[in-house]
Design goal:
Blueprint (H helix, E strand, L loop, with lengths): L1 H11 L13 H7 L1 E3 L4 E3 L6 E6 H6 L5 H5 L5 E5 L7 E5 L8 E4 L2 E2 L19 E8 L3 H4 L6 E7 L6 E9 L3 E10 L4 E12 L8 E13 L4 E14 L13 E17 L2 E17 L9 E19 L2 E16 L3 E18 L2 E12 L3 E15 L2 E12 L3 H5 L1 E2 L2 E2 L7 E14 L2 E20 L7 E20 H4 L6 E15 L6 E2 L6 E12 L4 E12 L5 E11 L5 E8 L18 E11 L1
Parallel strand pairs: 6-9
Antiparallel strand pairs: 1-2, 3-8, 4-5, 6-7, 8-9, 10-11, 10-34, 11-12, 12-13, 13-14, 14-15, 15-16, 16-17, 17-18, 18-19, 19-20, 20-21, 21-22, 22-25, 23-24, 25-26, 26-27, 26-29, 27-28, 28-30, 30-31, 31-32, 32-33, 33-34
Length: 612
């Protein structure tokens, strides 16, 4: 009964509400936002691509406690979780498999040669994020191979105020979180370090977990340029009840440690800008089929990715030219996959120019992989300003993905790799419109991706092991529609409703040559996705955000989810207290591999900032 009353209190705030003091600055942010890719920079409203941006302010208002959960509220993005707070999650963009999207932290690629299952093992805390930029559609021209269906760049920064940050929350199922951060900005040298721990007893048998994060970032400004250093480490252990095998495999367990370190330098000389950087990512994965009984079945995998890049741009009367080269080495030592090593070389160029109201960016990325030879990924983006507030855009590009070592060599009683796999490739195009007016933004686009040598894990009979195969062609097409209203601008600063967001994505994926086979991943893509949200005032310093999403996947039952958060903050915004509920109506649903997701989940917490 108490829980029912609490649900009614949270949902009821959408009705019994009147005033608050914070003003959303979405419209201003859109006007000022600059999309920074590896080389070129473009104002958000002039971009020739379908881009979603999640700012820190919006991120902290959402009824979520991890980035994977937050990404599920962006149109066309499908984060298929096997548990809460991104304990284990697979990223899909516009119907892609979890291997076909790229994640970056401050431009550093989070690739893993073992498997794309590790793509969202992010060695950063939730509070470190300044903004998340999602580029939908092929990004190989910009980032190289594996940016097959899109890319997500997570951007952090050192706060401008010397501060101590403290936060904590607790909730159902023995859930708790504690984090602390120290920001030491400076005119010449600034630092930011954060630590956090998130843990739970689990919402069903063998779903307990803990996640520890450490993140450090510093910036040193010199007369000639500036250095940026970052280091992140995440350590997680979790019960993996039914995660990777059949639902009857209830005692699986996994432990993962991921670290990322990089050093970058930026210098501008006349019309040239140089950005060299080096990075190292390491991932250790331990898996047990029966928890605490390694003698039954156990795997150890350790992968290392070491890379160096040089990005340059040159500004002239003809536009902005980007040039660059990257070298990357990937190796793995595994009790199951064996020991392997491969090298990657990338050479890229692009040029952005304008012809009146037309903005065009053609480019090409040449790639050599020691295992697969040379490939080229050409592409071109274009946008045209039809009216002052309306812009048409279109893009076309080729993308490429090489098989992971799991695809090639994994073997256990239920899975068998295929060393004869060929890389996937695709040609994608998109066309759409963007409309912007003070207090309102909308975009709509049609996209099409034709994939050759599509890789999917399949089997002919239920008792056969899963094995990856190349299929001749897959055609994925669909429509993206999104809109956002900011009523602080449309009406007044005292408007009851701060913001409303609506989005719809439709995806149609057709895979040839799949008759008489059972698909493991490709046929789990989204078909219909609807996302809605309202952020409004209550009274005084109270505000409320209600989010909802409808998910209809090809091979799973559809479902509606509703999440809610009530916030209280003081005028200086140094203290925030909140209560939130996810899956308010206790919906039974699965996102991947028939793993039941949590039901109704309550949490309450506080965030405090001390400036000094």
């Amino acid at each position: 009964m108490k829980r029912i009353l609490l649900i009614l209190a949270i949902v009821g705030t959408t009705i019994f509400s009147s005033y608050a003091q914070n003003i959303d600055t979405t419209s201003t942010l859109l006007e000022e936002l600059i999309i920074t890719e590896n080389r070129l920079q473009t104002p958000f409203l002039e971009s020739a691509r379908n881009i979603e941006v999640l700012h820190a302010k919006k991120l902290k208002q959402l009824p979520v406690q991890s980035l994977p959960e937050a990404l599920n509220y962006l149109p066309g993005i499908d984060v298929r979780q096997r548990g809460p707070v991104g304990v284990q999650a697979d990223l899909s963009i516009r119907g892609s498999t979890f291997e076909q999207s790229l994640v970056l932290i401050n431009g550093i690629k989070i690739t893993d040669p073992q498997t794309g299952h590790h793509m969202l093992n992010l060695p950063i805390g939730f509070e470190n994020i300044d903004e998340v930029v999602v580029l939908k559609g092929p990004a190989a021209r910009i980032y190289g191979q594996n940016a097959f269906a899109g890319a997500i760049n997570i951007i952090t920064k050192i706060p401008e105020q010397r501060s101590i940050y403290l936060s904590a929350f607790g909730g159902d199922f023995g859930t708790y979180n504690g984090s602390a951060a120290l920001a030491l900005p400076g005119e010449k040298y600034g630092q930011y370090i954060s630590v956090s721990r998130n843990a739970s007893d689990g919402y069903r048998e063998n779903t307990d977990y803990f996640i520890n994060n450490v993140f450090y970032q510093s910036e040193l400004k010199l007369a000639s340029g500036k250095f940026n250093i970052q280091f992140g480490y995440t350590d997680k252990e979790f019960g993996a009840n039914g995660f990777y095998s059949s639902p009857s495999a209830t005692q699986q367990w996994e432990a993962v440690q991921t670290s990322l370190s990089s050093v970058a330098y930026e210098q501008k000389i006349n019309k040239w800008t140089f950005k060299p950087r080096v990075y190292w990512r390491r991932n250790k994965d331990q898996y047990q089929f029966v928890r605490g009984q390694p003698e039954i079945y156990e795997n150890f995998h350790t992968s290392n990715t070491l890379g160096a890049e040089l990005q340059t741009t040159y500004e002239s009367k003809l536009g902005v030219t980007g040039l660059g080269v990257e070298l990357r080495n990937e190796d793995i030592e595994s009790t199951n996959l064996g020991n392997w090593n491969r090298d990657n070389l990338g050479i890229f160029t692009e040029h952005k120019f304008s012809l009146g109201k037309l903005l065009v960016t053609p480019g090409v990325y040449f790639n050599w992989f020691s295992d697969f030879g040379w490939n080229a990924f050409p592409g071109v983006d274009a946008s045209y300003q039809i009216l002052n507030n309306t812009r048409a855009f279109a893009s076309v590009g080729r993308s490429f993905r090489i098989p992971t070592y799991t695809d090639l060599y994994y073997a256990d009683p239920a899975n068998l790799g295929n060393p004869d796999l060929e890389p996937e490739s695709a040609v994608s195009y998109e066309a759409g419109f963007k409309y912007y007016l003070k207090g309102f933004y909308a975009q709509v686009s049609y996209f099409n991706r034709t994939t050759d040598n599509q890789i999917d894990w399949v089997k002919n009979n239920a008792d056969d092991p899963w094995q990856p195969q190349n299929f001749s062609e897959q055609i994925t097409q669909g429509v993206d529609i999104s809109a956002e209203w900011d009523f602080n601008y449309l009406l007044s600063e005292d408007a009851f409703i701060n913001q409303i967001t609506l989005a719809y994505t439709y995806i149609d994926a057709q895979l040839s040559e799949r008759e008489n086979v059972i698909s493991r991943y490709v046929l789990e893509n989204l078909k219909h996705q609807f996302i809605g949200g309202v952020n409004h005032k209550i009274v005084g310093n109270f505000s409320h955000q209600l989010k909802s999403r409808f998910i209809d996947r090809v091979s799973l039952a559809d479902y509606w989810l509703f999440d809610s958060r009530v916030n209280w903050h003081n005028e200086s915004d140094n203290l925030n207290i909140y209560i939130e509920a996810t899956n308010i109506f206790d919906k039974e649903y699965t996102e991947v591999s028939l793993v039941p997701m949590p039901g109704r989940w309550f949490r309450a917490g506080a965030k405090f900032r001390l400036d000094f």
